[in-house]
Amino acid sequence: MIIRQLFYGVARFEDIRAEIGVPKSVLSARLSSLIEQGIVAKRPYKPEGGRTRYEYLLSRTGFDLAMSLLALLEWGNRHLDLAGAPIGPVRRSDRAKLRVALLDEEGSEVALQDIRLADLSK
Question: What does the pLDDT read at residue 67?
Answer without folding.
Answer: 87
